[in-house]
Amino acid sequence: MATKEFKAESKRLLDMMIHSIYTHKEIFLRELISNASDAIDKLYFRSLTDQNVGMSREDFQIQIEVDKENRILTISDNGIGMTQEELESNLGTIAKSGSLSFKNENELTDDVDVIGQFGVGFYSAFMVSDKVTVVSKAYGQEQAYCWESEGAEGYTIEPCQKDTTGTVLTLKIKENEEQENYDEFLDQYRLQSIVKKYSDYIRYPIVMDVEQSKLKEGTGVDGVDPEYDTVIETKTLNSMVPIWKKQKSELQDGEYNQFYKDKFFDFTDPVRVIHSSTEGAVTYRSLMFIPAKTPFNYYTKEYEKGLQLYASGVLIMEKCPDLLPDYFSFVKGLVDSEDLSLNISREMLQHDHQLKLIAKSLEKKIKSELLKMQKSEREAYDKFFKNFGLQLKFGIYNNYGADKETLQDLIMFHSSSENKLVTLGEYVSRMKEDQKYIFYASGESVERIEHLPQTELVKDKGYEILYFTDDIDEFAIQMLMQYQEKQFKSVSAGDLDLETEEEKQEAKKQTEENQDLFTSMKEFLGDKVKQVRISNRLKTHPVCISSDGQMSLEMEKVLNSMPNDQKVKADRVLEINASHPIFETLKELQHTDKEKLNAYTQLLYTQAMLIEGMEIEDPVAFSNEICKLMTK
Ligand code: ADP
Predict the structure, then answer these.
(1) Hey, is 282 helix, strand or coil?
(2) Cα separations (Å) of 284 from 111, 355, 361?
(3) Which of 10, 53, 317, 564 could make an SS bond with 6 (beta carbons 3.0 to 4.6 A apart)?
(4) Cα torsion 94, 197, 261, 270: sign
(5) 422 half-sphere exposure, CB direction, 13 A CA radius
(6) Closest atom of ligand 1 to CA, residue 121
(7) Could you tell me how many helices (H) and strands (E) the chain has, helices first?
(8) Could you read off the pLDDT of 602-627 as tens digits, one per residue?
């Protein structure tokens, strides 16, 4: 009998399978089962209109058999089968499948990872077997045919005997090698778990005869020692109905939680389950979870975002990153769509229109669920925000603010008046009639900001302040620029515009009268400050540092703490409280003792820096100065 050669590109793919060092060889079973399931789909579809098929839904099944001794694994289906021509064209060539066109473009070299990312189809059988035999009888045909191949050399096709319609795949499992254990594919437990892992949701029963030990009757009771019989039972390995295909009303919280924990390796129940079925431009089901805890590696590079992706119940990608934007990377879950092809490659998925539609619609679902939680279950939302709020703020900052609209209603900050986390919407709804700005103050912690001199007057005038305690906060707000047309204003920068007309006049007068004093103080401080001036934000404290321009002191701290050679510096302004007794002292010294004025100026500047949590240049000089003051 003549051996036929494989078509060139098939040969290359086959070669790659045979010599593959790919570690997840187990996926061959997924591929073969999914082919079997497709073949059954076809015949089942036929049976709906063709009386002659004579089969109903329950008659279909996929069967796995193991012959350990002879190293034979068999996978049979009673699907549509293949004619001689089909065997030739389907198995002799890899024709249309998407993975091939990608492979053509990208040269089949040693790219072993390709295997993990594609549905590689029938040829994956050669990852685990020396010889593959396909006996198939197509629906409506009398004659069955046998296709056989031992690898890249070629294949044969000849007529053979088979009574029923369908296909039997016989794999001669390879001998173990130094680095590879192939025995596992002959082990009933291992096979069961592979089926569970990848093909649990195949819609037809996948059955296998499994050995089970059963208690012998009459033993194990009334003091009789237990004895066991080994019995063979035909077991259905897959559950067939995936949880996400069930109706919400059929499911209890407990079932969702258990599924989440099993599937995504968490010990804690999720805070939120988002289960939905969507029809329209693209049809899909999704089941998503928001974890109750931050994964230990969440804020590191090791963390991989993504949802499991199923095409018609078959897992095609463990973590599809394109389904989730970075700012929702904490979401776990899966998507199952009938509109996706099983053989789609990762690279092609990225450009897949359907997938983009799904991703957009998932994003909306996640956002609306979060908003719902924010409104109706505030405590849970607070907890969620403590876990993942930082990621949302990063999301506002990243991509030059492109996603700020999506995220601005989700973020929260500590409020000076409410003493808890509040949303921007809540802040704006409470704004006073004459209030122009959304005020904020930055610092290391709520406690520290609470004591900042700059917050005193703003609070005193009855305005709420948002406390920015995360490094990213000010950067994110700069991207946001405004919320509901209200601009953000730092209590430590620029003109707060809080004074009455009278107060403004008074300040102007003071400034004019004391211009000399400020000029001297600025000279003493040199480059440390850009300006010394009367403050319009202080109440009981004598001095503070404010910043002038885009960069705040907090931003300076954050940027300089990053591994970066170039240090930045915010423009500092030393502000003096004209109604503080110290101011009188300074005015006097301006005329009587310049040296002392210099010393006091340095002290006041250093104090203001300390209050801001900034590093001071010379702590020793500072304490020496203070000692000098204390010594008679
Ligand atoms: P794909 O499934 O992506 O088309 P495969 O290489 O896995 O690629 O299979 C090639 C073709 O062989 C399938 O499209 C199908 O027509 C046919 N085929 C494979 N397995 C079976 C089977 N068990 N029954 C019927 N046809 C099959």
Answers:
(1) coil
(2) 32, 10, 10
(3) 10
(4) positive
(5) 20
(6) 7
(7) 22, 22
(8) 999 999 999 888 888 889 989 998 99
Distance from the alpha carbon of residue 124 to the mean position of ligand 1, in angstroms: 12
- Per the CB < 8 A criterion, the answer to whether 169 and 206 are in contact is no
> What is the predicted pLDDT for the residue at 368?
96
Please state, rounded to an integer, the average pLDDT across all residues of the chain.
88
SS (H, E, C) 164-182: CCEEEEEEEECCCCCCCCC
Pair of tokens at residue 386: 């403590």
In eight-state DSSP terms, residue 435 is: -
With CA atoms as reference, report the closest residue to 274 among 254, 291, 289: 289
Tally of residues, the chain: 632
- Terminal CA-CA length for the chain: 116
Q: How many CB atoms lie within 10 A of CB 154?
A: 15
How sure is the predictor about 104, in pLDDT bands with cuts at 50, 70 and 90?
very low
**Which residue has the CA at smallest separation from atom 10 of ligand 1?**
90
Alpha helices (H) in 290-409, listed in sequence order: 346-350, 353-376, 378-397, 404-407
Residues 6+ apart with CB under 8 A from 577: 535, 538, 539, 540, 541, 542, 543, 583
The protein residue whose alpha carbon is closest to atom 15 in ligand 1 is 90
- The answer to whether 119 and 31 have CB atoms below 8 angstroms apart is yes
- Encoded tokens for 598: 């210099």
The DSSP code for 51 is G
Query: Which two structure tokens, joined as six digits, stand for 359?
Result: 């991703």
Q: What is the CA radius of gyration of the chain?
A: 36
- Residues in contact with ligand 1 by the CB-under-6-Å rule are 31, 35-36, 39, 77, 79-82, 90-91, 94, 97, 121-122, 167, 343
The residue type of 574 is L
Residue 517: both structure tokens together: 């004093």
CB 619 within 8 A of CB 597: no
Distance 246 CA to ligand 1 centre (A): 29
Locate the ligand 1 atom nearest the alpha carbon of residue 75 and give its number: 23
pLDDT (tens digit per residue) in 261-273: 877 878 889 999 9
Query: Helix 8-18 and helix 98-106: axis angle, to 10°?
Result: 90
Q: Is the pLDDT of residue 106 over 50?
A: no
Q: What is the value of pTM for the model shown? A: 0.67
What confidence score (pLDDT) does residue 108 get?
42
**Structure-token match 């009981």, residue found:** 540
DSSP 363: H
Helices (H), 19-150: 27-47, 84-86, 92, 98-106, 113-117
* Residue type at 253 in one-letter notation: D
Please give the Cα distance from 109 to 87 (Å, whole number).
27
For ligand 1, the distance from its centroid to the CA atom of residue 174, given in whole angstroms, is 22
Contact by Cβ (8 Å): 188, 66: yes
Judge whether residue 221 has pLDDT over 90: no
Helix (H, G, I), strand (E, B) or coil at 159: strand
Q: Residue 351 phi/psi, 5° resolution?
A: -105, 5
In this prediction, residues 292-305 reach a mean pLDDT of 91
Q: How far apart are CA 171 and CA 162, in angstroms?
A: 17
Using one digit for the tens of pLDDT, what is the confidence trace for 67-93? Answer: 999 999 999 999 999 999 999 988 876
The tokens for 418 are: 């409410």
Q: Three-class SS string for 198-225?
A: HHCCCCCCEEEEEEEEEECCCCCCCCCC
**CA 302 to mean position of chain CA atoms:** 11
Residue bearing tokens 């300390």: 610
